[in-house]
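Figure 2 data, in text form.
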Amino acid sequence: MFTVLILIMHAWAVSAEKRSHGVSLYGSQDLKYKENEPYAFANPKAPKGGMLRLSTIGEFTKLNPFSLKGTSAPGVSILVFETLMDSSMDSAEPFSQYGRIAEQVEIADDRLSITYYLNKKAHFTKGIKKENGEWEYEDFPLTADDVVFSFNLIKDPEFHPFYRNYYIHVEKVEKIDKHTVKFYFDKLNQELPMIMGQLSILPKKIYGQEGKDFGKNFDKLAIGSGPYIVDSYDKGSHITFRKNPNYWGGDIPVNIGRYNFDKIIYRVFLDPRMRKEAVKTIDASQRIDVLQVNSSKDWATAFNGPFVDKHWLVKKRFKHDRVSSMQCFAFNLRKDIFQDIRVRKAIASVFNFKYMNKELFYEQYTRQISYWDNNKEMWSRGPAEGAIKEKLLKLRKKYNDYEKNKIYVPKDAILRGPYNLDSDVFGKAMDFQDRVLAARSYLDEIGWIYDSELKARKKGDDILKFEILLYSPGWKRLVVPIVEWFEQIGIKATYRLVQPAEYSKMVKSFEYDIIINTFGSSQSPGNELIDAWTTKSASMPGSSNICGVQNPALDEVIDNIVASHSRDILVENVKILDRILSANHYVIPQWYISADRAVYWNRIAGPKQYAKKSDFITNVINWWWYDKKRSNRLDRAIKDNILFKDN
């Protein structure tokens, strides 16, 4: 036992850190960028100025991006507030961070604490707009007191509960001096020293005033240390950010070539059709400059014609290598009818992706199978082997209770792994009608009998029926055939469209049968899984445990993931998690695409290298710029109704 302990201690000591400008998950030796080196996807010579017009669907109700209730305004969390460290979006780095508010960082040899050395130049800015329209700016320093305050604020009941799970193993935070702060952890957790750097820092002077309620009093107030301040807003029409002229961090390495627009405006649209038209108008007062296109139909049909042909409007795909997060129809297991895995599997088996991809998606998508698709390192297909098989067998023995029919680790986790429900056990594609017949027979066998008068299946007094809750009209054309497929196996399925604000409220309180959801995945999964899949988060309002999963085997696997002390062990545990999630059929997997599709006016331009771990809009906000000369040439081309030449 003593020898084992020495080996374990050695494994952690090997990755011990010294004071550094950055940190990487398994040691600073993995950092790609040297001190004072800008990102490869930045253009240090990018011009500054101009305006960027973006859009959002659905009105917002607050500026506070950290409280639970309400819908926060777009952009606030990334433009106004800053984090201790900046996470690299370089594909060569699975999880690396570089100094932002903290200019240097040091991880203890035992990895049970991390110390941040704050940049003494860092400060908050409060913008004050006078009656004559001019602005005054009040700056006040950002210190260790603000970091301590920001972390302790997570305990506020009005703060979003995700963060309490995310930082659950942080034992305490300590102010060492005015510009030094130290976090202590209650257990070894490889990822925890990294995710501490993602902590957003809020000014104690503003948000810590005595007698103030964080969740209510600050819904209309956003004051941070970031590159922009809120210029103006109307919850039903827009929010405008103006460049902070007193921004302290413009010259730090992670910000070289970044934040190039003087103003960023998000226009609010209630109708997606109006948003599409806004990106196609030459009227600057009505225009949006860029749109990331998430609809295959829109990509194929909505953005063609003279504007694109003449290169006024650019239509382009940007290849990315992000892990494809699980986009799906998520079952709410808090509902009795979804408790039986056999029911969930029968429902999922009649989802006809082949038809949808051909008839509705213009053959643009790939079927989602795994929670970590588009990443071969974490794929786990076919029968489990080696250590993965051994660990799954141990979990089955430990947690499955066959007498009570509590099966937490199904056989398929070992025998098949994540697989396409459109195929048989040999991987051969099954005809849709064959799957319908099989699902009908299967539901009959488990006691859900078809009632011809009800035109639905019954078991006792229970009717096999459910509602799919939608937040966007664009989903209606996709859900209509799906409802019909469910009806073919005797399920009374319906759908309901609600406004985004109401949808957000219903999701936070788990008031739905099935919703469309995306479970975020990354190259370095960890503490976020606690909020998404563990037993304790299932009953926590506002958590991302959308399915209401309570599976002790998953709890253990997630503990193993966050404690993984090497990349190989992390990947092994992720494959185990993926297998158990997939085999339990908590969701109906949908589809993914390995490229960002976007349209944008030829007034803006971006660097040669695309930050592939960021989505397109985030790339534009961070690294693109307004090209004044290009814009003038475009205006002349539009006036003369001629082709715009890029060079």
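Caption note: The mean pLDDT is 93.
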